[in-house]
Amino acid sequence: MPHETLLPEHLFLNPATIQAPPAPQAKIESPAELPSPETEFESHTEQNPPETEIQASVQASDLQAEPLENLSEAPEDTASTSGFAALKLAKPVLEAVLASGYEDPTPIQASMIPHVLAGKDVLGQAQTGTGKTAAFALPLLSRMDSRNHSPQILVLAPTRELALQVSDSFERYGAKLPGLKITAIYGGQSYGPQLRDLRQGAQIVIGTPGRVMDHMRRGSLDLSNLQALVLDEADEMLNMGFAEDVEWILSQTPEARQTALFSATMPPEIRRLARKYLKDPVEIALAAKTTTADTIQQRFWIVRGLSKQQALIRLLESEPIEGVLIFVRTKDATIEVAQRLENAGYKAAALNGDLPQNQREQTVERLRRGKLDVLVATDVAARGLDVERISHVINYDVPFDPESYTHRIGRTGRAGRSGEAILLIEPREQRLLSTIERATRQPMTRMFMPDAESLNQKRVERFKSRISQARKLPQLEYFREMMLNYAQENEVPLEEVAAALALLVQGKTPLLLPPDPPGLQADPDLSQRVRKDKFSRERSPKNDSEMGLVPYRVEVGRIHGLRPSMLVGAIANEAGVDSKFIGKIKMHDTYSVVDLPLALEKHFFKALAKTRVVNHPLRISRLGKSNAFTESAPRSFDKKPKFSPAPKGRPDHAPRAKAGKRGFLGK
Asked: What does the mean pLDDT of the chain come to?
């Protein structure tokens, strides 16, 4: 995790003994005074690295709070304390964070955690991946009462993928809290496991608005003792048509709860929610400023069907590498990945903060002199690294923020040389791509997995090259005579002797990869096939013909309780289609018609085969061209269609996926 300059010391006060910080003090904006969406945040700028600005409105007198249980004790000399230890987290939470390999908080964490610890409502503007999940998870875990076995913390997320990611983060950071129970609830999963978790006393609930509301209506989710509620990616929830659901949930929870709202943007609807449901919130905005050298070609690889380590080895085999710098998040990962590469025959080494300074310098010097080809490093350990022969920077793990990404890939493409920056991502992480492109102002090109056949051809060519090089060695004559004698004595042909020698040289490592299993090389991801470079166009397609849309019929309609936003969400979630590529929707009583990209043909039906919306299977089918339609149904914030049930009575539906790909993974 990258080191960041922490905020001034007075923001890291122990909530049990808070003193007012020295003047000047910035005035907190009450909900009624929150600026309009056209107004920039009125706030003061904290000290941070030159490429990141933290803007925060703080009223220190409002930071008074009751003493928190299990808080790590404040050191006598706070100036000598840094990293997460300076944030006064509960001891078990701090231990879990440090055990995960994370050392220092990101800017959003350093500025947000003290206020959440103090029980304040917060309004945070930050992209996913800046570390905002930890910014609310760590202090909320520190504040909760592990003896209370009713839901104390509720996190609302727009998609089941994000809900699961947030749940994983809470599990990791709360690993040392005794008796902690966490559950994720979302549409598309049967109620059984969710009901069991809730009955067993889940204290932290993370879910999508639709399924959370359903459990509340059923009486299986009792929020009467709720202490804190988090709206994560609030703008996405509203974009996907969750506005009514979110407001209904907020209205059913205790008014005394603590509320945290995070959003990448601040449209009018978010401002309205903040004014209505947050109490004198501390407002913190993270603004990123990044640029990327034109000499660096940026690519990404969506890893499917292989482990990341297998994907990395295939990548290294297929690229004309010289020196390679691989970035991972934790110290343990540097050792694990480097060891795997060494086993695969690469000259690789780990570079992390646990290495003594002299050993780090020796390792970097080996890379500089060509005695080492691959360096696996954390952001912290690679600071200041300047090795001209680095041809590739590979982001094995997704960086926490755009600034970290830019700093990472800046290690290549130096001294007028070209460089390659490659990002390995999993399918659930695809939404980070648009954030990187916005931050770097450069497009990224998708690359595809080299198949086993092409890699085997490369391996054979390399083996033949080794033979050619060996033939030039002066010792060859002695071995020639030896092999001739062996062939004569054993009456075997020379080609059989040569084959045996080749096998002997190769050792236990197979020369060839086994054939790829069927389906391993997936079709290009739909969202990338239809997505266009944001920086090479000024507008989106205006009509269906421009986008290549064709009509599809689904066997769910008004009488089933379907709303257009439900259909958009289900298709986006299950097929991975960005909502801007979902066209017109026309709803009928018993069925609906939706325009979708023609590029879906190859894998769309498989992805949606088991999808259910409002507890009915979609049973999607392609309509003929003569059945195309032009009338558009209302979506998102448009008026409700007729027969659309109110939120309180709406039946369960499949989870709605995030419309666009925004931000990084919050950790």
From this structure: 74
Give the whole-angstrom CA distance, residue 56 versus residue 109. 12
Contacts of 36 (CB under 8 A, 6+ apart): 268, 271
Q: Tell me, yes or no, whether 102 and 167 share the same domain.
A: yes
What was the pLDDT predicted at 241? 80
Identify whether 522 is part of a domain: no
Same domain? 152 vs 268 = yes
Give the count of domains, the chain.
Answer: 4
Contact 173, 138 (CB under 8 A): yes
Look at residues 215, 219, 273, 201 and name the one whose alpha carbon lies nearest to residue 244. 273
pLDDT at residue 636 in the model: 32
> In this predicted structure, what is the pLDDT of residue 577?
63
Strands 153-156 and 228-231: parallel
Q: For 315-353, how does the pLDDT look when each residue is reduced to its tens digit (9 = 90+)?
A: 888 788 889 999 998 888 999 999 999 988 889 999 987
pLDDT at 92: 94
pLDDT for 643 equals 36
What is residue 210's three-state secondary structure?
A: helix
* Domain housing 589: 542-649
User: What type of residue sits at position 437?
Assistant: E
DSSP tag of 613: E
Q: Is 553 helix (H, G, I), strand (E, B) or coil?
A: strand
Residue that is last in its domain, among 288, 312, 343:
288
Positions of the chain with pLDDT under 70? 1-82, 127-130, 287-293, 305, 383-384, 400-401, 415-416, 507-509, 511-548, 573-581, 598-607, 609-610, 624-667
In this structure, the answer to whether residues 568 and 464 fall within a common structural domain is no
- Here the tokens at position 80 are 């000598």
Question: What stretch of H or E contains 260?
Answer: strand 258-263
Amino acid 1: pLDDT: 40
pLDDT one-digit tens code per residue, 176-199: 999 999 999 988 788 899 999 999
Residue-level pLDDT at 627: 38
Pairing type for strands 445-446 and 621-622 reads unpaired
Query: Residue 167 in contact with residue 183, Cβ under 8 Å?
Result: yes
Task: Return all residues near 587 (Cβ < 8 A) that are at least 6 apart.
Answer: 557, 558, 562, 564, 633, 641
Predicted pLDDT at 114: 95
Using DSSP's 3-state secondary structure scheme, residue 228 falls into strand
Domain end call among 288, 317, 347:
288
Alpha carbon distance, N-terminus to C-terminus of the chain? 10
DSSP letter for 188, please.
Answer: T
Distance between CA atoms of 622 and 627, rounded to whole angstroms? Answer: 10
Based on C-alpha coordinates, what's the Rg of the chain?
A: 28
* Type of residue found at 534: K
Same structural domain for residues 71 and 168? yes
Residues 435 and 477 in one domain: no
Same domain, 67 and 192: yes
Can you give the pLDDT at residue 291? 53
Q: Is 620 exposed, middle or buried (0-12, 13-18, 19+ CB in 10 A)?
A: buried
Residue 473 has a pLDDT of 83
State residue 83's pLDDT score.
Answer: 84
Inter-helix orientation angle 308-318/452-471, to 10°: 50
**How many angstroms separate the CA atoms of 297 and 412, rounded?**
10
Q: How many helices (H) and strands (E) does the chain have?
A: 21, 22
Which pairs with CB-CB distance under 8 Å and at least 24 residues apart come from 454-457? Answer: 454/318, 455/314, 455/317, 455/318, 455/513, 456/512, 456/513
Query: Of 657, 656, 654, whose CA–CA distance to 187 is shortest?
Result: 654
CA atoms of 229 and 406, how far apart (whole Å): 33
Tell me the CATH number at 586: 3.30.70.330
Strand partners, 622: 552
Tokens 């928190």 found at: 68
